[in-house]
Amino acid sequence: MPATDQLNIVPFVSVENMMDLVLSTGTEIFLRELADYVEEDFLRWESFDKTARVASHSDDGVIELMPTSNGTLYSFKYVNGHPKNTRSGRQTVTAFGVLSNVDSGYPLLLSEMTILTALRTAATSAVVAKHLAPKGARTMAVIGNGAQSEFQALAFKSLLGIDRLRLYDIDPTATERCRRNLAELGLTIEACRSTEEAVEGADIITTVTADKQNATILTDNMIGSGVHINAVGGDCPGKTELHRDILLRSSIFVEYPPQTRVEGEIQQLPQDYPVTEIWRVISGEQVGRQSADQITLFDSVGFATEDFSALRYVHDKLRGSECFEELDLLADPDEPRDLFGMLLRRQALTAA
To answer: What number of other Cβ atoms are within 10 A of residue 224's Cβ?
Structure first.
């Protein structure tokens, strides 16, 4: 962290800084450590202010703000989702976030969150799967081999011991890129020709597609008993991946029901359809997987506490690190009430 007492200086983690921080830590270690923070904050779920994210939708995508606080720290994330961006060489999802001190309101950290969101989404998926996946799970199918796929694979490898991947994407070049990126990381990888082929024999099925529409990535006949489904791609109104019949056969676990009922797979079901909040399972208040043939479904939409956890982890991780820049972000006049005088002094300085 900055070795300065200047109140105007805020540590800023750029994309380059974030990549250096992840690589100097080791990607799998980073995911495991981040997962610990995510799990810690699920365990103190009741201490958080919680609200569904504020979303601005258009025909092309969505821009969202995701705020939360535990009474000591406050965070928010700005994030978009624009599937068509790939046509112009842009990311589907970009993000940045802020962590602040509640006592003063002063920010403690400003960080890129495009990379960090992919890491926290994968870490959260794996934390949940620790509590829901079938015992001894080794094989995962990943349907949708875009920007999140490698992170998901590494998180499940690191936290659950997954060592076999079955990949499918409607774009074979995406599958080949994912296979190539993961080739030297200790996974046995099979590129499949269809969703049906990919899910065959899988213990865990991760769906992480990007199209902003009600799609049917998985149909009921593809899903055998005992699997865990990690449904990541459905994350806004009108965007789903699973056939409704799969939901009706599954035990459904969610982050924050008021948000998930609007954005997740369960938008296909009545508003009072029973679901289980995942924090209750992590805390031991409720049971997750109850039998070997049970189908468990994590209807993942991403919630603000997970971004809070990620920013809190990065803030702590920066101690003793040089993976940040000092950003002159806040006005810091000599006398707090003399903000205009600060302008006058700047004017005199530049005129000299």
So the answer is: 12
- Give me 235's structure tokens: 């994350």
Q: Would you name the residues annotated as active-site residues?
A: 235
Mean residue pLDDT across the chain: 95
Place of tokens 């774009």: 171
**What is the model's pLDDT at position 61?**
87
Separation of alpha carbons 20 and 269, rounded Å: 43
Residue 348 has pLDDT above 80, yes or no: yes
Distance CA(76)–CA(178), nearest Å, equals 30
Tokens coding 55: 């979303």
Q: Which domains does the chain have, with CATH numbers?
A: 9-115+306-341 (3.30.1780.10), 128-303 (3.40.50.720)
Look at the pTM and tell me if it is higher than 0.90: yes
